[in-house]
Design brief:
Blueprint: H1 14-27, H2 30-35, E1 37-47, E2 50-54, H3 57-69, E3 76-87, E4 90-101, E5 104-117, E6 120-128, E7 132-133
Parallel strand pairs: 1-6
Antiparallel strand pairs: 1-2, 3-4, 4-5, 5-6, 5-7
Length: about 140
Amino acid sequence: MHVDDLAAVAVTTAQDLEDRFGAALAAKDAAALRAMFDDEVNFRAMTPDHIWEAQTPTAVIDDVILGTWFASCGTMELVETADTGMVGDRHSFSYRLQGTNGDGRFVIEQRAYYDIAQGKITWMRVLCSGFQPLTGHP
């Protein structure tokens, strides 16, 4: 499936959501990312220097994830989606991205815990490694 089609297709499983989330994030596809969140989402995240909160898909994606975290990034690519699973009734997964920003090449890893209802993320917590330089890598 092409990333442009992601926003139009309903999420059917947690694994589907995780795969599509990583692909849409790497592509900076705001519409596809917003479509994965419930209208009333409970979102919190911790990056190396800040704690973030948002309650709507627009705030999560436009104000936090794409509007702040990755706003200064040029190209990004999904390196891997890994460690998918469950912690009790809660879903978890991690994803690693590589890309470029004003400081050069970077790698970043995030771990997410989330709940879904009717194919949408209703609750999410994210822990971020921060942008780590890729020195000596192509």
